[in-house]
Structures are given as structure tokens and as C-alpha cells.
Amino acid sequence: MQFVASCGVTRSQEIELAGFSRVSIARHVKRGQLQRLARGIYAVPGYLFTEWHDLVEVTKTIPSAVIALISALAFHEIGTQLPYETWIALPEKGHEPKSHLKLRTTRFTEPYYSAGVENHEIEGLNIHVYSAAKTVADCFKMRGKVGYDVAIEALREGWRLRKFTLDELSGFAKLNRVDSVMRPYIEAIIE
Questions:
Q1: Smallest Cα–Cα separation from 88: which of 121, 52, 111, 55?
Q2: Domain extents in the chain
Q3: Which of 12, 66, 108, 178 could connect to 113 by a Cys-Cys bridge, CB 3.0–4.6 Å?
């Protein structure tokens, strides 16, 4: 299927909009011309997956998802945490998404949800990931969920690797209302 080959990973709805029926999709899968990755998600056989393929599947399954917290730290190569589930942020309102993937969902209100979102192209798809500075501030905001040690390690490693500036970090700390919590750690690290 040329259409799927040009898209990379695609959803069944997108294939149907291109003029293929569900029966046709099932036939292509049976013939080996199309590979079913998950419910409603397809690729051509021999499709080359990257190490971040799970983020592609999350974005295809839940378009409003933003890669957040531990998964965003791993994406930015900050710290030593290797998540066994994909951490995502969703808008406060909306239904709980169904997915075959292991997800850890956090709900953010505005302006926290849309602030600091970066677009990164992976496997030909735009993936929404929080910036390094926003992710560190979010780790301090959600320290009860991720752990104080993870937040401090993220701050230390992110600063050492020059993943953000002090102004960026301070801006997101103020936005998340954790500037007073982060200040002593920031002062200890930048001295």
C-alpha cells in the first residue's frame, strides 16, 4: 500500500479516508502487504522502527498526548531513569484514552498543559514533548509522583548537560509555582 508506505505508521481512519475499506485493510493484512502493529495502527512490512517508536504509537493513538515527566527526561537524555511505561500529559477535560500501551497519565490545566511543548519529528511524525526546562519544573511540581530524587537528579543533569538556561528554568518554575521549592537546589547547582 503506497499510502501507508508514504505515511510510515498510520491509523485505520487515515487509511479509510484515503479510500480503502475496512475489508480491504483486513485483506492487505492477511496477504502480508500491511502489518497490524496494534488495534487501528498499521505499517508496511519491513518498516524500520526507531528507539522512540512507542512515542509514535502513543501520538497516533492519542493525538492530544504530550510526552511528559520521566519519558520526557529519557527523550532529552537527562538522568538515569528508564521508564517501563510512557508518561503523558493530557488536557484536564476529556475522556480517558484507551490504548494497548502501558501509559502513565497526568492531567494538566491550562496554561500548564500547552506551555513548553516542543515538536520533534520521529519516524516522519510530529511528536509533542515538553522541553527539558518544563520537564524539570514539572518533576518538581509532581515530586510526589516521580520522587524528589528524580527531580533533583533531573535538575542537576539537565544543568550539567546544558539542556536549558537559567531563565527558561526560572520561567517554568514560576509558571508551575515551584520556584521557592527549586530555588535552594538551583543555587547549590549553579555555584
A1: 55
A2: 2-43, 53-190
A3: 108
